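Complex 703.
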Amino acid sequence: MKVGLFIPCYIDQFYPNVGIATLSLLEKLGCEVVYPQGQTCCGQPMANSGFEHLTHGCNELFVKNFQDYDYIVAPSGSCVLHIKDHLHVDGKEDAATHIRQRIYELSEFLTDVLKVNNLRAKFPHKVGIHQSCHGQRGLHLSQMTELVAAPFSKPEQLLHMVEGLELVELKRKDECCGFGGTFCVFEEAVSVKMGKDRIDDHVNNGAEYITGNDVSCLMHLEGILRRQNSNVKVLHIAEILNHE
Amino acid sequence: MNEHQHKEHSLLAADFNRNEPRVNWHDETLWWVRQKRDRMAWTLPEWEALREAASCIKHNVLGNLHDYLVEFERNAQQNGAVVHWAANAEEHNRIVLQLLREQGVKRMVKSKSMLTEECHLNPFLAENGIEVIDTDLGERIVQLAKEPPSHIVLPCIHKKKEEIGELFHEHLGTPAGNADPQFLTAAARQHLRKEFIQSRVAITGVNFAVAETGEMVVCTNEGNADMGAHLADVHIACMGIEKIIPKRHHLGVFLRLLARSATGQPITTYSSHFRKPKAGQQLHIVLVDNGRSRQLDRDDFRNSLKCIRCGACMNTCPVYRRSGGHSYHNAIAGPIGAILAPNLDMKEYADLPFASTLCGSCSNVCPVKIDIHQQLYKWRQVIVQEGHSKPAKAASMHAMNMVLSRPGLYKAAGGAGRWVMRAMPAVVNNKLNPWYKQREMPEAPKQSFADWYKKNRSK
Ligand code: SF4
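Predicted structure with iron/sulfur cluster bound:
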């Protein structure tokens, strides 16, 4: 099984450790992983701002980089959702379709494709999960509180396999953190308020760490936590699942 | 419309956020309504099937709107109602004014109707010397405060009870400092009763109009629609053309969904059916288009016409709860307002589809399953294509695209950017960077993942 590793641009630039953890975790689980050099971004920042028509360049690059893999895996629900919903390239539609159908966010790849049921990981801390909206409501990584439907959570399922880890209960299980791509700067006031409220929920319930499937949301929450001089830290789920 | 009559959503929302305790209170109040809705929905195991059924019925309505409207008109006329057609807000207002002039009235009562808000009926009638008394308690409160409603179901949800006490003291003569909700409600009731008794004309909105029977259903908790319509000589019912449902038995689906979604009640206190005018009374129905056929013609947005105005998408919206209804500068606020408004005036409301994180919670609570967040995304594309985005934003997007579609440039820019952040943090961390205002920038690592990979994995 050949896995193409997609490390979205801001993870590549600002959170290389998340990329490293994702790679080591997949390797530990026996995957043959390749990181195609020359990859950049899924195009989402532009598309969500109304500039989807500018994303041809990104799309072509993406298809070129990832068309030859059995699976494409990324540690970001949001970028994966964008590719699944919007990757099209004139003249290369077969390759684009292959990618749209074979791209997975890391935790769903672990639960649904690799069917992982135990992990060699240890993290003796109290952890709160931030359910990023695109992963949750877009990729259905976990059940949504709005629906009258049976609960499940792929990230939780994985975190339960980590020795010593204690999950905290939140008052609002799946409220948005307010990152929202360019929303975080164009709607700064509301974005920050939403982030502060999410953080309060985690802190009030005793979380030492906030984890999640999207570094973008975590980066926003971390920015606020650091401004507050808080002791609470953020970690991407790959960093916890890979922690021995 | 005037150019930039209003500040944009982001600025109005920033104003709202100057008072953080108030934002917390607003957020908690609406979240409480969302939770009530959840509890009510969970009492019905068939909830999701009910939503699907409602969505399908409305799908059928939108596909056959012409036929259903004609059927409704025919049946309503047979029932003795007079049916008027209004292509837009101006026509609607003129029809209503004409009817009021025929009666020679200078003052009359209106029960809640978001359509008349959309058409700006009150100010139009005021200009023509006719005073409208809103009889829904929440609407009366915002009317006294000379403000528009901030929510389609809970019009004065942005007001605290102390503020309402003050308003009543000023306008209705209640004792200063009394903010007891029960007392204030009783005072409002006394005041409105007088208006009901004197009013010869009553305007109501319409929640559902049944094509099969020509009847209309109005849902209220206060019974004010009935009071107005039964006591007046002339009842004018104003409705958007999308309010049609094919058959009476479809009410069994919609009435179960509406109040549960709106306020977490199993049903509204009153579901009043109006079919025939009583002897000596006139019943007028004004059917209003006002952009609805245009929206119907937009494939990506026509589903927005399924809306039954329950307000659930507002209560669940994390942005609405923290920016307040007035920040949407439109009669209908929140996620649904943001997909309806650009159809009315794309330039004026170009900011609204961007007032969202696209979290998708709205689409999940919507009882008629409108793909609200997807429409927000699609409106963004249309608005940019039609040239309504700010030049600075467009320039930054072009620059971003330039970098992201060229790996060499991306690598160089990323390396340089991280170097700048490490070497000269002041260049990034300043007042002009909205990220930095209340958030630290991420710490820039020495090497990117790509660099690390090259060193550690590449053969
Ligand atoms: S869009 Fe849906 S949730 Fe929002 S008001 Fe309309 S019916 Fe209710």
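The first strand of chain A starts at residue 2 and ends at 5.
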